[in-house]
Amino acid sequence: MSAAVEPVARMRCPVCFSREIDVLLLHRAGRYYCVKCSYQGDVNEVRAAYARIREKYKNRTTRIPFEQIESL
Amino acid sequence: MILNILHRPDSPERAHLFELEQQYAHENGIRTTILLTPEALHDRDQVATALRHQSEFGDELGLSFHGLTHESIVDLVGYGQEALWLFSLDQKRAIVSALASRFREVIGTDPLSVASYHLDSSTMAIVRELMPSVVAAVAGCFEEGVRVFHGCNHSWYLFNEGMPWGPWYPSKSHTLRPARDEDDWCGIVAVPHLMRDMVLSYEGRNDFWASHPPNVMRGMGYEGEDCPYDRNLIDLFRWQEQFNDGYSYYNSFVSTAWLAEHHAIDDRPEVAQSLYRQQLEYLGKLKKEDSVNDMTMSEFATWFRSERRIGSSELYFAKELLYGSRKHYVWYLDPDQRLLIDATQSGSIGDLRPYTGAVPVATGPESEQLAVGSYPFLVQSQHRTGMQNHFQDGSRTTAILHCGGLELDLGTCPTRVGAVTRKADVTVATLEPVTASLAGTQLSITTAIEIRSGGRTRFRRTISWEGTIAEISLTERIKCAPGTTEYPERMDGVRGAIMKSIETTTDGDELAPAESSLDYGYRGRSLEAESVSAVRGEFPSVNTAVELAPADGQMWRGLVEEGHLYSPYLTLSLTRLISRDQESAVCLQLSSL
Predict the structure, then answer these.
(1) Domains of chain B and any CATH numbers
(2) Most buried of A29, B178, B180, B217, CB within 10 angstroms?
(3) B352 with B339: CB under 8 angstroms?
(4) By three-state DSSP, how is residue B163 classified?
């Protein structure tokens, strides 16, 4: 058996993350895959999935001034 | 707002990051409390840095009980693990004693402050005994438990649900329960490990949404190198001053591991460093404007003892910041109860911790609870179903209207908190009126929830409508399930009862209230009676009795419903007919058994 499975330190599975579970993706031959679910993809697909996850946080780039908290 | 900035040096390989975060704080005029881990206490350079910063900037040096995998601990007790609160009693004592000695040896004084993600009651007593100098402790992580256990692949054994969200006086028998009085107090002022988003840490993982920029990165609530949410959360805590005698508290506790490459952050460490720097810059700006007062932990403990009475109530008016949902919750806490009012469900209680039962809990191998240090709930709508979504509903309170053979559950009627008023003896949350249609009639429902000390919560509602309908049936209900996690716990000893109104003999003598009752046996039975004085549930596992009683002088019909193994709850209901614009009121009363 080859031992050429390289853990990638900073890429979590976007499917598991959507369930609020942190699972590190493993990496083989340019593809990333998850050991907890069936997700697999290349780095661009993973990053695109992250971007979609962020979309639900509609205020992620919005500064809410202190004065507006009263009416929030 | 009072501010504590806490730093935790650990590995010598990350000493540069400890110095970096100290630099961020000092550049912004903020003093820190440096909580040294066993690893740092064995690193001459980091000790020297800490001592220099104590002398130069007025920082405080304390002790962190994190990093108990260090060889000094392994040599002492035979193995290492992160959680002091999960060692056996003799090991807790040995570790606390050894760290007290080490601290004294290298720092030259005894610590005034300590930190742990959780300090159970047995560990707290050991700290008090072996480190009498300690006046302040980081002693719990608000609502950390089931969700984070799942999120960390069932490998993070920190169960801290049901605690105060801000600083508190821990009781002797359960660290997470606020003390009733001086005798009940363990002797140390506690602060939470981070300030949490009081909406999202109830609805999901608490560790994504907190006063910790890299945690927010973990939750992906940022974009590029910008995270306005960090500053929005600070301001929402500042805004709470109006509800708590002008007092609000904030802390941040970012350890060096979060400023390095981290397994739970999918981005460059430089981004985490930048966001942490931005957070401290904003806090430094607020300090310059006199909106923030930075203290060390022991200074805060002194202030807290002087300004906040043991037994005080606390309130947090939570507004959702990140999704833009405009959701509101109100959190209330005193030594008798912690409860959560969910405005999106027309004032349903979504979480109820009956502190009045004063359940003792210590964690560790000798304890019945083992790793679960949470204070148990009677209602938890996230873990135990809440609103019906599949089979039946679960634990929650609600009101249900009936008219023309149709039903309206107010839990389906979203609204917002219109006003919160705080007086010495009562807190009132008034919701904005809800409009809804029932059997072709447009209704307008106003709800006010009054909370008093002694475990009393009163629901007042007024229903208005146009048309020919004379009366509408109103049911007020609480569905209870004692527990600490999402899984049902045994209902052994649970008892339901109906208390009939006091009757008078022909001679005018009062008779004791008649009572009918059932012992819980998962058999789906019920008790029903007209004109009741209360419906009652008794829950030995939380040492608490719950009574739902009329509070408007009207005649209410009572119903007690036993559940079964597919719906393991005890439901207490009161029902009466209500006429147009008439106010109804029922009182939920907690007491110890």
Answers:
(1) 2-309 (3.20.20.510), 328-592 (2.70.98.10)
(2) B178
(3) yes
(4) coil
The 3-class SS string of B268-303 reads CHHHHHHHHHHHHHHHHHHHHCCCCEECCHHHHHHH
3-state class (DSSP) for residue B190? strand
Q: Percentage of chain B surpassing pLDDT 70?
A: 98
The chain A residue lying nearest B320, using CA atoms, is A72
CA A66 to chain centre: 31
Residue type, B249: Y
Q: With contact defined as beta carbons under 8 Å apart, do B308 and B246 qualify?
A: no
User: Would you tell me which residues 228-287 of chain B have a C-beta closer than 8 angstroms to some C-beta of chain A?
Assistant: 228-229, 231-232, 235-236, 238-239, 261-267
> Chain A residues with CB inside 8 Å of B261's CB?
9-10
Domain segments of chain A: what residues?
6-55
Which structure tokens are listed for B287? 């300090």
pLDDT value for B467: 86
| CA pair distance B73, B375, nearest whole angstrom | 29
Q: How many Cβ atoms sit within 10 Å of the Cβ of residue B509?
A: 8
Contacts of B238 in chain A (CB under 8 A): 66
Q: With an 8 Å Cβ cutoff, are B228 and A20 in contact?
A: no
CB B209 within 8 A of CB B197: yes
Q: What gap in Å lies between CA A64 and CA B136, rounded to an integer?
A: 33
Strands B113-115 and B136-140: what pairing? parallel
Mean pLDDT (whole number) for B149-155: 96
pLDDT at B504: 63
Average pLDDT, chain B: 96
Q: Please answer yes or no on whether B221 and A57 come within 8 Å at the CB atom.
A: yes
CA distances from B542 to B172, B175, B491 (A): 17, 16, 11
**In chain A, helix, strand, coil percent, each to 5?**
30, 25, 50
Closest-CA residue of chain B to A53:
B220
User: What's the whole-number mean pLDDT along residues B206-214?
Assistant: 97
Can you read off the two tokens belonging to residue B433? 């009126």
CA distance B418 to chain A (A): 10
Longest dimension (CA), chain B: 88
DSSP B514: P
pLDDT digits (tens, 9 = 90+) for B439-473: 999 999 999 999 999 999 999 999 999 988 999 99
Taken in order B521, B523, B526, B527, the sign of the CA dihedral is: negative
The beta-strand segments (E) located in B66-140 are 113-115, 136-140
Chain A residues within an 8 Å CB radius of B156: none
Per-residue model confidence (pLDDT) at position A2 = 46
Q: Where are the alpha helices (DSSP H) in B142-251?
A: 146-151, 200-203, 213-218, 228-239
Strand partners, B36: B63
- Give which of B251, B292, B22 is closest to B138, Cα–Cα: B251
Contacts of B321 in chain A (CB under 8 A): 59, 64, 72
**Cα(B415)–Cα(B94) distance, integer angstroms:** 53
Model pLDDT, residue B515: 86
Distance, in Å, from the CA atom of B226 to the CA atom of B267, rounded to the nearest integer, reads 13
Query: What mean pLDDT do residues B63-88 have?
Result: 97
Write the single-letter amino acid at B69: T
Please say if the pLDDT value at position B87 is more than 70: yes
pTM: 0.96
Would you call A30 helix, strand, or coil by DSSP? coil
In this model, does residue A1 exceed pLDDT 50? no
Reported ipTM: 0.92
Res B406: pLDDT: 96
Question: Touching check for B151 and chain A: CB below 8 Å?
Answer: yes
